[in-house]
Write a structure and sequence with these properties.
The complex is a heterodimer of chains A (403) and B (189). By secondary structure, chain A is of the alpha+beta class. Helix content of chain A is 56%, strand content 22%. Chain A contains 7 helices and 11 strands. In chain A, strands 1, 2, 3, 4, 5 and 8 form a 6-stranded mixed β-sheet that branches. Chain A has a 3-stranded antiparallel β-sheet with strand order 6-7-9. Chain A has a two-stranded antiparallel sheet with strand order 10-11. Chain A is rod-shaped and about 235 Å long. Chain B is mostly helical. The longest helix of chain B has 33 residues, at 115-147. The chains are: A alpha+beta (403), B mainly alpha (189). Chains A and B meet through β4, α5 and β9 of A and α2 and α3 of B.
C-alpha cells in the first residue's frame, strides 16, 4: 500500500530538495515523474541516478523502511532533488537609463531550461538557500546579475526609444545576455534559451501617447461633428423632400380638384357653347333666311327698278328717236323750205333770222317736252301734334310719333 | 513491469537483419542490444539520451563560436550560431517530449509495437544517430574553422550546414512517432 508523494504544489516551484528521512508515514511513498520532471538521488552525500518519466516507488516512509532505519540496514542520508526540466520564463523587472538620459523600465524575459543531467548543479543554489526554489527565488538569484551585466550595458548603448523598440536591439540584447549569463546559468544548471525585454512606456512615450490621445480625441470629436452635420444635412434634405412631396401632393390634389371643377365648368361652358352655337346657327339661319328674303326682295326691287329704268330708257329712247325724227323732218322741211325760198329768191337775211329764231324756239320746245314735269311735294300733318311734316318723313321731328 | 515501461510482444532476441544497425549503434552507445525483452525501455531512453547528448555537444561547440564571434563583433556569425542553437534546442525538446510507447490493456483496442515495427525503429535510430554524429562533426569543424584562418563566409557556411543537418535530424526523428504508431510511411525523408 503506497501513496503518491507530491513534490510540487505550486506552478511557480522550479525545484525542491527533499530529505527522505523527513517522510515519516506508515505508508510508503512513491512519486510519479512526468516527462518534464526529473529527480536526482543524493545518497549518503553522493549523487546517484537521475530519473525521469518513471514511477519511483518507496522513496520514503513505510514500515519496512522504518525497521531498516532502526537496524541500520539503509542509507544514512537520503535526499531527492526534484526539478522541472521544461523551459521556464523569468520576468525580471528593471529600470535603466538610455544614452540620452531618459529612463526606461519594464521586464526582461529570460527563458531558461534545466537539462536532466544538470539537475545536481542545483545543489549550488540549495547550499545557500532554502530547499525550495520557485520563480521568485530564481529571479532573486539571477535578477541583479542580469540587470548589471546585460540590461544596463545594453541600455547605455541604446540611443533612443526608437532603437529600444527595434528588433536589432532585441537580438543584440539576447546575444549579450547569452554571452554574459552563460557562465552563471551553467553553474546553476540552467541552459539559456531566449531573452527579450518588454519596456514600459517612457516619459517621452507617455507625452507622445498623450498627444496621440488628444489628437485622436480631437479627430474623434471632429469626426462626430462631421457625422452629425452630415446627419443634419440628410435630415434637412429628407425633411425638405418630405415637405416638397407633401406640397406636391397637396398641389396635385388642388390641381385635381381645380381640374375637375374646371372640367365641370368647361363641360358647362361647352354645353353653353353648344347652346350658343345652336342659337347662333339658328339665328344665323334665320338671318340668312331673312337675308335671302331681303335679297330676294331687293333683287326683285332691283329687277323692277331695272325694268322701270329700262322702260324709262326705252321711253326716252323712243321719245328721243321720235324727236330726232321730228327734228329730221323739220330739218328736211326747213331745208326744203330754204331750198324753195332760195329757189324763189326769197331767202333773205330776215327770213334766215326768222328761220333761226323759230328753229331755236322749236328746239327749246323740244327740250322741255323731253323732260316730264314733277309735281310739287304736298305737306303732311302730324296726327299727334298737328305739326307740318314732309311726306317722305317717317316720324314727326317734334313729337317723335311714327306715321 | 512498470506501467510506463516500453514493451515488445514477441521480440526476444535481436533479429539478424537489424544486427548491423545494432552494431553501428553500439559504436556510440555501449551496452545497447536493441529492443530486447526486459531492456526495451532502457534502450529507448539510451537512444534518446544519446541524441540529446549529441545535440548538446553540437550546441556547446556553436555556443563557443557564438560567444567568441559576439566578443569580436562578428554579429553575422553570432546570429547564425544562435539560430543553429535555437534549432538544437527545438530538437532536444522534441526528443525530450517524444512518445516512448507503452503497455496497453488487453481490451484497450490499442496495440503495442510489433517486431517489424521495432526493427524499423532500430534502423531509424541508427540513421538518426548517424545524422547527429555528422552534425557533431560539422560543429567541430565550425569551431575549428572559426579558430583558424577561415573566412567569415566559410564559417557561416559551415554553421548553416550544421543547422541543416540538425533540422534534417529533427525532421527524421519526428518520423519516429509514426514508426512507433506502426503506420506506413509514404516516403522517407
Amino acid at each position: 500500500m503506497t501513496t503518491n508523494f507530491k513534490w510540487r504544489s505550486n506552478p511557480n516551484i522550479v525545484a525542491r530538495l527533499v530529505d527522505g528521512n523527513d517522510i515519516q508515514t506508515w505508508k510508503s511513498k512513491q512519486v510519479v515523474l512526468k516527462p518534464n520532471e526529473a529527480c536526482a538521488f543524493i545518497i549518503d552525500g553522493r549523487i546517484g541516478d537521475i530519473v525521469s518519466e518513471k514511477v519511483v516507488s518507496n522513496i520514503g516512509g513505510g514500515l519496512g523502511r522504518h525497521i531498516a532505519d532502526m537496524i541500520g540496514a539503509t542509507a544514512t542520508d537520503r535526499r531527492m532533488l526534484f526539478a522541472m526540466t521544461g523551459p521556464l520564463d523569468l520576468w525580471i523587472p528593471f529600470a535603466a537609463n538610455l544614452s540620452d538620459g531618459s529612463e526606461a523600465s519594464g521586464h526582461m524575459n529570460l527563458r531558461i531550461q534545466m537539462r536532466k543531467e544538470d539537475i545536481p548543479k542545483l545543489l549550488n543554489i540549495f547550499a545557500n538557500r532554502a530547499p525550495l526554489l520557485d520563480r521568485d527565488g530564481l529571479i532573486g538569484v539571477l535578477g541583479h546579475e542580469v540587470i548589471t551585466r546585460c540590461i544596463v550595458p545594453a541600455m547605455a548603448k541604446c540611443s533612443g526609444i526608437e532603437e529600444l523598440r527595434s528588433a536589432e536591439f532585441q537580438e543584440l540584447l539576447e546575444m549579450h545576455a547569452e554571452v554574459e549569463m552563460r557562465q552563471t546559468l551553467s553553474t546553476l544548471g540552467f541552459t539559456f534559451l531566449r531573452a527579450f525585454i518588454s519596456t514600459s512606456k517612457t516619459d517621452q512615450e507617455k507625452v507622445a501617447r498623450l498627444k496621440a490621445d488628444l489628437d485622436f480625441a480631437t479627430k474623434t470629436e471632429g469626426a462626430n461633428a462631421d457625422a452629425l452635420m452630415e446627419r443634419i444635412v440628410f435630415r434637412e434634405a429628407a425633411t425638405l423632400r418630405r415637405i416638397e412631396c407633401e406640397v406636391n401632393v397637396e398641389r396635385a390634389k388642388k390641381h385635381g380638384e381645380v381640374t375637375i371643377q374646371a372640367e365641370s365648368e368647361l363641360l358647362e361652358l361647352r354645353k353653353q357653347e353648344a347652346v350658343w352655337e345652336a342659337e347662333l346657327n339658328r339665328d344665323q339661319g334665320q338671318s340668312d333666311l331673312r337675308m335671302k328674303e331681303s335679297s330676294h326682295k331687293t333683287t326683285q326691287a332691283m329687277d323692277l327698278f331695272e325694268q322701270v329704268q329700262a322702260r324709262k330708257r326705252d321711253r326716252i329712247q323712243q321719245s328721243q328717236e321720235h324727236q330726232d325724227q321730228r327734228m329730221d323732218k323739220q330739218n328736211d322741211v326747213q331745208v326744203k323750205m330754204m331750198e324753195m325760198a332760195a329757189n324763189q329768191g326769197a331767202l333773205t337775211p330776215e327770213v334766215m333770222q326768222e328761220f333761226l329764231r323759230q328753229q331755236t324756239a322749236q328746239k327749246a320746245i323740244d327740250g322741255t317736252d323731253s323732260q316730264a314735269p314733277t309735281p310739287p311735294p304736298v305737306a303732311a300733318v302730324c296726327q299727334q301734334c298737328q305739326a307740318a311734316m314732309m311726306p317722305e318723313w317717317k316720324a314727326c321731328p317734334h313729337c317723335g310719333s311714327t306715321r | 513491469m512498470a506501467p510506463y515501461q516500453f514493451r515488445m510482444v514477441n521480440m526476444v532476441g535481436t533479429p539478424l537483419d537489424v544486427l548491423p544497425y545494432v552494431r553501428g549503434i553500439q559504436m556510440v552507445l555501449s551496452g545497447y542490444e536493441g529492443y530486447t525483452k526486459g531492456r526495451r525501455r532502457d534502450a529507448d531512453l539510451a537512444i534518446r539520451e544519446e541524441l540529446k547528448r549529441c545535440g548538446t555537444r553540437v550546441r556547446n561547440h556553436l555556443l563557443n563560436v557564438h560567444d567568441s564571434a559576439f566578443r569580436e563583433k562578428k554579429i553575422d556569425i553570432s546570429k547564425s550560431a544562435k539560430a543553429c542553437c535555437n534549432t538544437i534546442d527545438l530538437l532536444i525538446e522534441d526528443i525530450d517530449k517524444s512518445p516512448t510507447g507503452m503497455n496497453h490493456a488487453f481490451f484497450s483496442g490499442q496495440r503495442s509495437a510489433s517486431v517489424s515495427v521495432l526493427k524499423k525503429l532500430i534502423k531509424h535510430d541508427h540513421d538518426v544517430i548517424e545524422m547527429m554524429t555528422k552534425a557533431v562533426n560539422i560543429s567541430n569543424s565550425v569551431e575549428h574553422a572559426f579558430s583558424s584562418d577561415k573566412t567569415d563566409d566559410e564559417v557561416k557556411s559551415l554553421i548553416r550546414q550544421c543547422e541543416q543537418m540538425i533540422t534534417s535530424s529533427r525532421g527524421y526523428y519526428g518520423a519516429r512517432t509514426t514508426v512507433l504508431d506502426g503506420l506506413r510511411q509514404k516516403k522517407k525523408v
